[in-house]
Design a protein that fits this description.
binds the ligand CCCCCCC(=O)C(=O)O, binds flavin mononucleotide, 11% strand, single chain, 8-stranded parallel beta sheet, TIM Barrel, two-stranded antiparallel sheet, alpha/beta
Length: 383
Amino acid sequence: MGPVTKKLTCLKDYEEAAREILSRRPHGPLIWQYYSQGAGDQRSLKENEDAFKRLQFLPRILVDVSKRDQRTTLQGQLVPSPIGIAPSSVHKMAHPMGELATVKGAAKHGHCLVLSTYANTSLEDIASSSIDCLKWFQLYIMNDANSNIARGFASDLIKRAEAAGYKALVLTVDLPVLGNRRVEREGDIDNVPLANDLPNFAKVKSPTLSASLIGSEESASSPTGLNPSVTWDIISWMKTITRLPIILKGILHPEDAKLAVKHGASGIWISNHGGRQLDSLLAPIDALPGIKEAVKDDIELYLDGGVRSGSDVVKAIALGARAVFVGRPALWGLICGGEDGVANVLKILRDEMDTAMALLGYTSLEEITKDCLFRNPMFKSNL
Ligand SMILES: Cc1cc2nc3c(=O)[nH]c(=O)nc-3n(C[C@H](O)[C@H](O)[C@H](O)COP(=O)(O)O)c2cc1C
Ligand SMILES: CCCCCCC(=O)C(=O)O
């Protein structure tokens, strides 16, 4: 890993530096492609950021903003900031310390971290590291060898996460099959060392990152890829196993948001999986107003996808999100500087958010409403 000489002051700096660092490492360009890619023609990937750029602020002045506070609660747990780290796979391809460095970076200021099923570090190793921050565990529902839901595997993972002290389960619901992505479709990613070192699969043989496409001949007890037959019933089944709040990640449609409430989910995570699933999906920030309108204050709403500045965080809060999560920016921090890089990416976002709040006339998250967003009469808007 080469040293970063330029001072990195915004997330774009981190993105460029991360790309540069990886370009000089063995397998680096392929790793970069895996992390940065979107599905298909990458339209949603671009749209996620563009949709934030289209929103403009309309500020209030002469408000006493000498004291500002970003604290909030997530599922009843106090966090110092509404910015968390979204689950992403295989962090040891970014940095030798992998997810351990990511969680340390998050914990420096107490940000929420969501650990992926497809992490390179076991959920127990992250939990027992005595690193103090709010931790949630992300779950995929897998196939068994007979193409049924691998319930034994899911239930084992859920019990392990609960026993280890995770405070919520994030069930990813936007990946019944893998999106149209080049590096997995061509199987290239499986050649990168550590890509398939997936200790959360513990006793069972883990599927590869491209397993859902290639198929597998594992024994009946082993998960062999994602199960595409999962429906809303899965929530009541999970509730027979765990008392942890269940958050559904990957909702975009207001009717699905209503169904999430009806089926007893505790949180809705608005996401198009960072543009990695179906290309041309709308941006999460554009889905947020319709979902807020549909569910009002009945459930906590989270959002990810294209959050690249503290102003983006304020825009999401203004439209009704309780918190936002970043995926790729945490990976850029990890590549550039391990735990310090992750911590600094989060600090940049916090500082930018703090400035945006001051310049808009806000002192706390409760005060932020869509009044700070400009509705341009030239364009139709669903704000
Ligand atoms: C390299 C990579 C791996 C990911 N792995 C997972 C995963 O294991 N589980 C999951 O629910 N989402 C996964 N995601 C999606 C993220 O949780 C998140 O939805 C997305 O990255 C947000 O967009 P952003 O990268 O623009 O912040 C992954 C995203 C990336 C970029
Ligand atoms: C077989 C599915 C692997 C998905 C692992 C990580 C992920 O969600 C991603 O977007 O990549």
